[in-house]
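Researcher: I'd like a candidate sequence for this fold, 348 residues long. If you have to choose between options at a position, lean toward the conservative one.
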């Protein structure tokens, strides 16, 4: 920049304004600066140097405790990412994905977080004992947690998962279902693929899954039904294949089930696949429900709890970037029970 200013006989401020504040220069002077810059091979102010000077990176960090590809494969994550990107775009900020796989060495996620050049973090659905979360909270930057966990003094955006699943459970009980099986996402860091007893459910470090199971339990207890005998099949990976294998495990253990309740739409799509592979009808033989309200669920006619995932991402971004908001503000978004063709009265 100094060499270019000397070449033109102007100040460094004039050169800087040509790139950063063009309204401060006449069009003729700005074009003369840019033409000289092209001739000398000067690409413009160094963004790294600018960030050091202004102490602003110009980007929001999104913490994912999943492989990076998860953000582009899971339908709910994609919609959340879209909403967050819209908020960042409106504010003229970039978006940096900060993946921290749950299988990684504990020191690596912390190092990834500490190296991230961002102005703040949105933490997307991580367990309360996640080392990456601890690393985020160590940095003197604004933080918004989406979904989980709830941390005192930290801004939060989410839904009432427990109440939403309680409503779904009450709906199924009203249809006469008493023998249900549950397919849930992982409850802890350990590589557990199998049945989860009540003690494991209550000790879950993933608050969303714990709340959804607790909501079902509430509905059963309200109807004087014993939750302890309800089989819950847990899966580490959140995929359609996992939903199918967990449903197979449930049906092999109890052929009298009349409903399979899944804590996500992706798992429910797998449940539908496995039930139909066995030649059983939905909903005549088995009712299947999900949670999230993704487009694929709508296409499949899935009864589900729909949540505004895109708006959740947008709200998290706005809350982070709006410095006039209280740093501990909580935003709770509404959910809807959407009844479609995969639910019906319990088979006799």
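Model: Candidate sequence:
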């Amino acid at each position: 920049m100094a060499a270019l200013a000397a070449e033109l006989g102007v100040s460094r401020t004039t050169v800087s304004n040509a790139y950063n504040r063009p309204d401060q220069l006449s069009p003729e002077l700005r074009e003369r600066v840019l033409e000289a810059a092209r001739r000398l091979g000067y690409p413009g102010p160094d963004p790294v140097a600018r960030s050091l000077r202004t102490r602003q990176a110009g980007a929001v960090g999104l913490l994912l405790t999943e492989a990076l590809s998860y953000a582009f494969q899971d339908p709910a994550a994609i919609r959340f990412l879209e909403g967050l990107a819209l908020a960042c775009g409106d504010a003229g900020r970039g978006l940096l994905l900060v993946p921290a796989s749950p299988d990684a060495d504990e020191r690596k996620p912390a190092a990834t977080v500490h190296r991230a050049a961002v102005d703040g973090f949105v933490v997307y659905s991580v367990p309360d004992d996640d080392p990456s979360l601890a690393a985020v909270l160590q940095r003197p930057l604004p933080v918004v947690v989406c979904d989980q966990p709830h941390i005192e003094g930290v801004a939060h955006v989410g839904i009432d998962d427990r109440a939403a699943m309680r409503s779904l459970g009450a709906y199924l009980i009203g249809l006469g279902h008493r023998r249900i099986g549950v397919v849930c996402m992982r409850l802890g860091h350990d590589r557990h693929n199998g049945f989860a007893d009540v003690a494991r459910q209550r000790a879950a470090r993933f608050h969303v899954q714990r709340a959804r199971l607790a909501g079902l339990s509430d509905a059963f207890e309200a109807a004087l039904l014993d939750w302890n005998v309800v089989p819950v099949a847990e899966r580490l990976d959140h995929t359609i294949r996992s939903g199918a294998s967990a449903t197979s495990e449930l049906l092999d253990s109890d052929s009298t089930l009349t409903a399979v309740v899944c804590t996500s739409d992706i798992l429910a799509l797998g449940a539908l696949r496995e039930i139909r592979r066995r030649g059983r009808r939905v909903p005549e033989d088995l009712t299947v429900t999900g949670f999230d309200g993704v487009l694929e669920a709508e296409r499949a006619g899935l009864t589900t709890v729909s949540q505004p995932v895109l708006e959740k991402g947008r709200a998290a971004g706005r809350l982070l970037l709006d410095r006039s908001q209280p740093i501990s503000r909580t935003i709770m978004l509404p959910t809807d029970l959407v009844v479609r063709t995969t639910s019906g009265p319990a088979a006799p």
